[in-house]
Design the sequence.
């Protein structure tokens, strides 16, 4: 199980803005250790955000996304107190899911 | 003389094979985008060139999106390992936003599928190994649009 995400969601003028900070190494598979051995690829491949059980963003990542990936997106609707769930899966099959309430 | 001809023939065969493979990747990309959103597009994310990546995503010839896509990147990135990228669009019915870095070993960085009601506004951060173009591709109303901006990288993000 991966490390927890930091998620912030706030609604303003009928639009909810969601900011996500994931904790993940995002190894490209191209980096070498000091002794020359290749560090195997290890990165988040998919991120999904759901609002009240409805998908509001579906993401596919590659190796070029930075360590500890950051994501910001906006969707129409949302009310204070309602739930946003974000989950990711990486190329080793590890997953993480976190939930946050929308701030007013 | 004979050897020369033979070499040319080999080259032609090689090129022909390449084109066939690209067409196959293109067809796979089209199928995947039509069938499932959840399936990670391995072919596209393994692509080493923009042409291969676009093919794998089922993009034929994107239109010029310079006016309809707002791509925000720093002009100079002192740290190539964390380069902020924002893609927004004024186009109606944006279904997909895709970010590429054309000189990275794997050119496709991230692909976002936007259901109805999600706005065409995405920010993320990418790694850049060297000075390169960040390319934004937007799919709206079934059509693809593309724009790009150069980011000068003073310290690459893929070293040890």
Sequence:
């Amino acid at each position: 199980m991966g490390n927890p995400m930091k998620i912030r969601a706030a609604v303003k003028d009928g639009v909810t803005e969601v900011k996500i900070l994931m904790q993940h190494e995002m190894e490209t598979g191209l980096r070498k250790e000091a002794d020359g051995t290749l560090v195997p690829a290890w990165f988040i491949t998919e991120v999904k955000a759901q609002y009240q059980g409805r998908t509001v963003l579906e993401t596919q990542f590659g190796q070029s996304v930075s360590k500890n990936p950051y994501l910001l997106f906006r969707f129409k609707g949302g009310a204070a107190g309602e739930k946003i769930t974000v989950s990711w899966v990486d190329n080793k099959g590890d997953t993480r899911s976190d939930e946050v309430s929308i701030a007013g | 003389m004979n050897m020369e001809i033979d070499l040319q023939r080999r080259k032609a065969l090689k090129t022909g094979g390449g084109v066939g493979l690209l067409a196959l990747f293109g067809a796979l990309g089209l199928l995947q985008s039509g069938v499932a959103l959840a399936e990670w597009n391995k072919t596209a994310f393994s692509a080493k060139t923009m042409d291969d990546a676009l093919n794998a995503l089922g993009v034929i010839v994107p239109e010029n999106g310079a006016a309809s896509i707002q791509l925000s990147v720093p002009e100079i990135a002192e740290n190539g390992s964390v380069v902020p990228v924002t893609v927004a669009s004024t186009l109606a019915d944006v279904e997909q936003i895709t970010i590429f870095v054309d000189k990275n070993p794997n050119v496709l960085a991230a692909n976002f599928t936007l259901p109805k009601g999600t706005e065409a506004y995405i920010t993320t951060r990418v790694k850049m190994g060297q000075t390169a173009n960040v390319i934004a591709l937007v799919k709206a109303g079934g059509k693809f649009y593309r724009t790009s901006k150069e980011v000068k990288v003073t310290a690459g993000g893929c070293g040890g």
Remarks:
- Residues 25 and 67 of chain A are 5 Å apart (CA to CA).
- Chain A has one domain: 6-30+38-101.
- The first strand of chain A starts at residue 6 and ends at 12.
